[in-house]
Design brief:
3 domains; 4-stranded antiparallel sheet
Length: 304
């Protein structure tokens, strides 16, 4: 089956700075594909280009068999979008927001109204059809935005940081709903700053930096390819000095951030035995994860 989205050598600049620099990737039907990267990596610009909302300078985009931006409007008929920031109409009820949104796809009002109960149940908002948006919590608004994006029964769902700002309960509910959609065969393109979210949801992902893909693969593949098996985090005022003097004897790589030393090892037992004799230092031993890969490839410095 053809790919729902093919991006080849995409480029886009702003103010003389290339924010998307020859990006290429393709989605497989029925998968969740993640685009990860620090602020300014080019993720949102890439999504806007893919949807035909921003014109690229070069490269090709094929969205649901349609060339973008030439036929972006036709392609978007079968796409659902959850933007980075909610854009619900605060003067309308939940049902009215879905109704108005469905009309953008030229759906008959009766068809939209018939879908509203199932969409509200999917969002965990059953019984709140007539509730004004102003009376919803942040988590409820985010779930409603997700439900609204499904009104046209899209083949592809584009999610730009769908759980930013939500409490753990709301995040887990949205994860469960997204897994349900994946199980139903929907294709999802996801951007997120939550590495655990990417590990839970994504079949494949790409890590971006400076407008380029620096690596691509399954979460497990990326962890195995780029990082040691285990991590020992060493805390305390004496951790930086200890790391400078001793960490190299036990770890293949050690990074210090503030008062924490991150020691990356394939076998943590010798290091843990050594640290057991230094009670002033606190430790956390854990398996390596996607966040370790992300920080190794994009750095620990703060991005604006």
């Amino acid at each position: 089956m053809p790919s729902p989205l093919i991006v080849d050598q995409l480029r886009k600049s702003y103010g003389g700075r290339e924010v998307v620099a020859g990006l290429s990737f393709a989605l497989q039907r029925g998968e969740c594909y993640g685009l990860l990267g620090p602020n300014g990596a080019g993720k949102t610009t890439t999504l806007r280009c893919c949807l035909g909302l921003t014109a690229p300078e070069s490269g090709t985009i094929t969205l649901l068999d349609e060339p973008v931006p030439a036929r972006a409007r036709e392609a978007r008929i079968k796409v659902g979008v959850v933007p980075q920031f909610d854009n619900l109409d605060p003067d309308f009820s939940c049902a009215e927001n879905i109704l108005v949104y469905g009309r953008y796809f030229e759906m008959p009002s009766a068809a939209i109204r018939a879908r509203i109960p199932a969409l509200m149940e999917f969002a965990g908002l059953a019984g709140k059809e007539n509730t004004n948006i102003k009376n919803l919590s942040g988590g409820m608004k985010r779930r409603l935005t997700l439900a609204r994006a499904l009104v046209n029964d899209p083949d592809l769902l584009v999610l730009d940081e769908p759980t930013t700002g939500l409490d753990p309960q709301a995040r887990h509910l949205i994860w469960e709903r997204l897994k349900r959609l994946i199980g139903e065969g929907k294709t999802i393109l996801l951007t997120t700053h939550f590495m655990d979210e990417a590990e839970r949801l994504c079949h494949r992902l790409a890590i971006m930096d400076d407008g380029r893909i620096v690596t691509e693969g399954t979460p497990r593949d990326l962890i195995g390819r780029h990082i040691e098996k285990e991590v020992v985090e060493v805390y305390g005022e004496g951790a930086p000095a200890w790391a400078a003097a001793e960490a190299g004897n036990f770890s293949r790589r050690c990074e210090v951030s503030g008062e924490t030393a991150f020691c990356y090892v394939d076998d943590a037992l010798p290091l843990l035995a050594h640290l057991a004799e230094r009670p002033a230092l606190r430790t956390l031993h854990r398996p390596a994860n996607l966040e370790d890969v992300f920080l190794k490839l994009t750095g620990r410095e703060l991005r604006d």
